[in-house]
Amino acid sequence: MVWDPQQYLKFSGHRLRPAVDLLMRIPDFGPREIADLGAGAGNVTKLIKERWPAATVTGVEGSAEMVAAGRKAAPDVEWSHEDLGHWRPAKRYDLIYSNAALHWLPNHAALFPAVMDKVKPSGMLAVQMPRNFLAPSHVLIGETALNGPWRSKVEHLVTPPPVEEPAFYHDLLAPMSANIDIWETEYLQVLEGENPVKEWTKGTWLTRYLDVLAGDEKLAFEAAYGMRVAKAYPKNAAGQTLFPFRRLFMVAQRKG
């Protein structure tokens, strides 16, 4: 995927809120080495550094465009431009934080224990992932993909939801954890503008499909999805679009 920082940050306030909610649930235990996995444009990584200014904070990000934006937003953070799927650090961290990133990686049954293994004893793992993939915003992307002349090019992208039930992650992490807190929050996001749910997904999940297409076909796919999703999320009397969005959170302390 080619990430567009401006498109992603179009709804920066709504995207930032769960990241801050996760950050505020982490105890103030004085971490010295912190990794932010999927640091994106650095707006959250900057907050991590502000909370623990004495810590060495490393932002790990696979998109060159996002890393460039991150270096501007958080110049006092160390940046590592590498694919999260190939992240194999030589050291362990006091805190590994990841906001809206790990759902892009497959095989969570192996991934989460592997990430937890890179947390120091008594350190913390803090993760937030969207769990909105069965909502119309995401289901209609797959429906559009399977019902158009582009089907052969994009149908391989129509896959089951990448994030499991909360209990799945509890069972994975509990054997390695001294304590673990897992919860979900559904945010009722009030969006402004023309077809804002399409614009929202265009910054993340829809990008996977648009990147495969080109020219008029790309525009036609976006338009076809836009018509479907606008009907699913109509404007209210005030001209606003209500977009419920569920997110999964976990904060786990590794056994000492």
From TrEMBL:
GO terms for molecular function: trans-aconitate 2-methyltransferase activity. It comes from the Bacteria. GO terms for biological process: methylation. It is an enzyme of class 2 (transferase). Keywords: Methyltransferase, Transferase. Pfam families: Methyltransf_23. Its EC number is 2.1.1.144. InterPro entries: SAM-dependent_MTases_sf, Trans_acon_MeTrfase_C. Gene3D superfamilies: S-adenosyl-L-methionine-dependent methyltransferases (1.10.150.290), Vaccinia Virus protein VP39 (3.40.50.150). This is Trans-aconitate methyltransferase.
